[in-house]
Structure formats: C-alpha cells, structure tokens
Amino acid sequence: MVTLLEGNTPLLPAPRLAEATDPSLAIFLKCEGFNPTGSFKDRGMTMAMSKAVEAGSRAVICASTGNTSASAAAFAARAGLRAFVMVPRGSVALGKLSQAAIHGAKVLVVDGNFDQALDIVRRIAETHPVTLVNSVNPFRIEGQKTGAFEVVDQLGRAPDYHLIPVGNAGNITAYWRGYREYHRDGKMGSLPRMVGFQAAGAAPIYENRVIEEPRTVATAIKIGNPASWGPALEAVKDSRGWVDIVTDEEILRAYRMLAREEGIFMEPASAATVAGLVKIVKAGRIEPGSTLVLTLTGHGLKDPDTALESATRPTSVPASLDAVLAQLGL
Ligand code: F0G
C-alpha cells in the first residue's frame, strides 16, 4: 500500500457560520485541506497508486487543475514511480505547481484548458505503458468514498445535507457511493441530500451544456466538461439533492468570511461550498434544525496569490518603535 497516512481529517463545528446563516442549523466542516498534500485527492491517490504498483506500472499520468497533480506527484515519489502531469497555463495556483515540481514530476503546462489536457492524457494512457490517475480511474473514487465513511463515524449519523464543490465531479460521485454503501451496511439510518456547487462561469452540469471556455477565480473547479457528469447527476437525483451555482464574488466573500470568522483558511474552490450554503439558506431551501456537512476540499495555502489579493495588503514600516506604534493605533 502506497500511503502518506491520508484521511482522518477533522470534522469541525462551524458555529459562526450557523449564526451568520441560520442559528438552528448544526454545521460541520470536513477539513480535507489537512490531508498530506493539502487536499482530498490523497484519499483517492493512495488507492490509485497502490493499484498501479500492484499492476506493475512504472509511471502515472494525469491532467489537473493542480491538486490532483500535487497528490499524484507526491504518491508517485513515495511509490518510486515516474509522474507526468499536465496543467492548463495560467490556471493553476502557485502552491500546487510547486508541489508537483518539488516531488519530481514532469510538469507540462499546456496552452489550453483542463478539459483539453484530460482528453490528451486519456489518449496517451490508452496507448502507452502509463497509468491514468485522474478520477476516471475507478480506484480514485473507491478511495475518496472514505470521506463519507468518516463523516458518519465522526457525526454518529448521516447529515441531512452534504454540500460539496463540483469540478470534474469525481468527489460528489465518491461521497454518494460512500454514503450508500455505509447505509446498505447498516452504519447509518438515513441518507443525506447531496448538493453540489459549481462556479457560475464554469457550470456545465447546472447549465446542462459543455462550457467551452470556463472562467472562475476558483481555478480548481474551472472545468467545462466533467468526466463524472453522469454519476454526479445520479448522485443528486437519487439523493433528492441538486446542483447550484455561485458567483466569483460570492466565493471570495465566503473565502474571507471563513478565514476571519472561523479561523479556517481554505482555497477558493472550497469556499464555493460555503458561498453555496449562504445562498441556499437565504433562499429557504434548507429545513430549519438540519445537520449539514460541508466538504472543504483544499487548503488555503495552495493559492497564496488569491489570499493576498483578497485581503488587506501588508504595510511596510521602518524598524522604529514610533513608526510601528503609529501604524497600530492602539
Ligand atoms: N475542490 C478542489 C480544491 C479541487 O482541487 C477539486 C478538483 C474540486 C474541488 C472538485 O472536485 O473534480 O472531484 O468534482 N480538482 C481536480 C484537480 C480537477 O485536477 O486537482 P471534483
């Protein structure tokens, strides 16, 4: 088993978020940014990489908006495999790119978007001795479903609603599979409604059409033609949930709010879930008194540029007591 001891992430109560939306709600954050490479991808990557090694593979390949490539690079290093990763130019956060690079992956920056890159790596994996570790690899979903198992173990029950960002749509598929399996095994009495959030400029499932040029500040979910489109639709349909959208402005507002009021620094794609919560509570779509779990998919340090652009700039001062005090206004 190729592992970095991923999983077992905290399920953190979010009382300020409840206060700001509806105090009758019990809101919990599944903090996946605390995984070894800083995102939920590690849950799937331990499985995909272990199976690749078992099959005698020597190399792995993926397309990525950043987190999959960071995780693939780290687990490939751990396994002693080569990693090839393709990322879209200008759309990958700095932290993610630095992870893939330092773990020794061959990083190709493509003049195109994620969907085009995924198409290329899928074709390469069909014809060359290299294992595809995008979530079209079924072992990825099998690993990621453990997120749902943990939520139920930590909460002692299933939430009423599970809110999650949607990009390539693997994670919503995985959570729903996890919940269904735990339910079938008698580990929980009821099933949650799955609510997925896409960025308004990259909302193929919501709009029911491929988006040729997706746009959003949440680069992790800047995807116009998700690979797990069908299974994601099934998840929301079977669970009586739905797919919704949030604007970049709503995402950035939620991003700052969580950081300042709950002490949680997550990346913009994760903030889409919090923005979505604010939106659907306001719209009256959540039953009062409900228990909600929000998956926060990736750590805020992944994307330091967006953090600095979204917050008050640091102030430069001379190294003098008076100058510093003048700035503090104590
Ligand atoms: N949040 C973050 C931080 C992500 O990195 C991703 C996907 C998602 C949400 C959406 O998850 O694709 O399963 O629907 N990132 C992929 C990547 C596409 O390449 O790292 P999804």
Structure description:
The chain contains 14 helices and ten strands. With 330 residues, the protein is an alpha/beta fold. β4, α4 (94-102) and β5 (106-110) form a beta-alpha-beta unit. α3 (67-79) runs parallel beside α4 (94-102) and α11 (248-262) packs across α12 (268-282). The longest helix has 15 residues, at 170-184. It is globular. The model has no long low-confidence stretch (mean pLDDT 97). It binds ligand F0G. Residues 39, 41, 64-68, 135, 165-171, 220-221, 267, 269-270, 297-298 line the site of ligand F0G. The site of ligand F0G has 22 residues, from α3, α8 and α12.
Topology, element by element:
Layout: E1 11-13, H1 15-21, E2 26-31, H2 41-54, E3 59-63, H3 67-79, E4 82-88, H4 94-102, E5 106-110, H5 114-127, E6 131-132, H6 138-144, H7 146-155, E7 161-165, H8 170-184, E8 193-199, H9 204-207, H10 229-238, E9 242-246, H11 248-262, H12 268-282, E10 291-296, H13 304-310, H14 321-328
Parallel strand pairs: 2-10, 3-4, 3-6, 4-5, 7-8, 7-10, 8-9
Antiparallel strand pairs: 1-2
Helix pairs in contact: 2-3, 2-6, 3-4, 6-8, 7-8, 8-10, 11-12
Bound molecules: ligand F0G.
Q: How many distinct helices?
A: 14
How large is the share of residues in beta strands?
15-25%
Q: What would you call the shape?
A: globular
Radius of gyration: 20 Å
Largest sheet: 6 strands, mixed
Ligand set:
ligand F0G
Structural class designation? alpha/beta
In the sheet with the most strands, the strands line up as 1-2-10-7-8-9
Question: Overall mean pLDDT score?
Answer: 97
The run of helices and strands is EHEHEHEHEHEHHEHEHHEHHEHH
Which range best describes the helical content: under 10%, 10-25%, 25-40%, 40-55%, 55-70% or over 70%? Answer: 40-55%
Distance between the termini: 55 Å
Per DSSP E runs of 2 or more residues, the count of β-strands stands at 10
Uncertain spans, ≥5 residues at pLDDT below 50? none
